[in-house]
């Protein structure tokens, strides 16, 4: 199989997995569900991935790589703009039923992490990356004078990552959406991060 054909097959399986997760959830998901939404047959899926678990691990790897690629920003860009871009990416509040269904399926996968080391490793990698993104943005903001000199990049990264995670869980369990978390983070940045004398309107909406 040529590299381009392999890439097309991977993209097809990833898209099919996404659609199947949205429609079936994690618990009820089968390889046949994914094959039904893919150009690949069930036997072909098993050729690439022994089990549903293996396929979902590959899917999580793809999600991580896609997120990392999308959030590769210029380190010389404005720190506040970079912070806003991260909030937009992680707390995308688009009114999209498939997106909400997918967040629900991802919460089901997260619920398996305490009992599944491989899931836990993938989710930890994603969490570490998000925290590092925030830490880097805040550190650059402190250095450039946009953020307060006494702002702690590590502590801020832990706080923001916790808000991200909690906002998704709350949105799924209460159907409250993510807009409140976006506004709360904007208030936090304006109140606790912006340096004195920096006259910037902060709005993540």
Automatic annotation (TrEMBL):
<keyword id="KW-0804">Transcription</keyword>
<dbReference type="Pfam" id="PF13977">
    <property type="entry name" value="TetR_C_6"/>
</dbReference>
<feature type="DNA-binding region" description="H-T-H motif">
    <location>
        <begin position="30"/>
        <end position="49"/>
    </location>
</feature>
<dbReference type="InterPro" id="IPR009057">
    <property type="entry name" value="Homeodomain-like_sf"/>
</dbReference>
<dbReference type="InterPro" id="IPR039538">
    <property type="entry name" value="BetI_C"/>
</dbReference>
<keyword id="KW-0678">Repressor</keyword>
<dbReference type="InterPro" id="IPR001647">
    <property type="entry name" value="HTH_TetR"/>
</dbReference>
<dbReference type="InterPro" id="IPR050109">
    <property type="entry name" value="HTH-type_TetR-like_transc_reg"/>
</dbReference>
<keyword id="KW-0238">DNA-binding</keyword>
<dbReference type="InterPro" id="IPR036271">
    <property type="entry name" value="Tet_transcr_reg_TetR-rel_C_sf"/>
</dbReference>
<feature type="domain" description="HTH tetR-type">
    <location>
        <begin position="7"/>
        <end position="67"/>
    </location>
</feature>
<dbReference type="GO" id="GO:0003677">
    <property type="term" value="F:DNA binding"/>
</dbReference>
<keyword id="KW-0805">Transcription regulation</keyword>
<protein>
    <submittedName>
        <fullName>TetR/AcrR family transcriptional regulator</fullName>
    </submittedName>
</protein>
<dbReference type="Pfam" id="PF00440">
    <property type="entry name" value="TetR_N"/>
</dbReference>
């Amino acid at each position: 199989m040529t590299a381009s054909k392999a890439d097309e097959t991977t993209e097809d399986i990833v898209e099919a997995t996404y659609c199947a997760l949205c429609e079936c959830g994690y618990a009820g998901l089968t390889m046949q569900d994914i094959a039904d939404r893919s150009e690949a047959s069930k036997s072909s899926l098993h050729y690439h991935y022994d089990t549903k678990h293996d396929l979902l691990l590959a899917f999580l790897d793809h999600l991580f790589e896609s997120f990392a690629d999308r959030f590769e920003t210029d380190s010389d860009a404005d720190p506040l703009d970079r912070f806003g871009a991260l909030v937009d990416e992680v707390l995308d509040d688009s009114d999209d039923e498939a997106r909400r269904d997918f967040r629900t399926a991802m919460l089901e996968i997260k619920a398996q992490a305490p009992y599944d080391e491989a899931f836990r490793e993938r989710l930890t990698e994603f969490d570490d990356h998000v925290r590092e993104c925030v830490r880097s943005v805040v550190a650059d903001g402190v250095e450039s004078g946009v953020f307060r000199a006494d702002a702690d990049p590590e502590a801020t990264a832990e706080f923001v990552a916790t808000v991200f995670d909690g906002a998704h869980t709350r949105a799924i369990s209460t159907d409250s959406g993510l807009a409140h978390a976006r506004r709360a983070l904007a208030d936090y940045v304006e109140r606790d991060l912006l340096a004195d004398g920096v006259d910037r309107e902060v709005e993540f909406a």
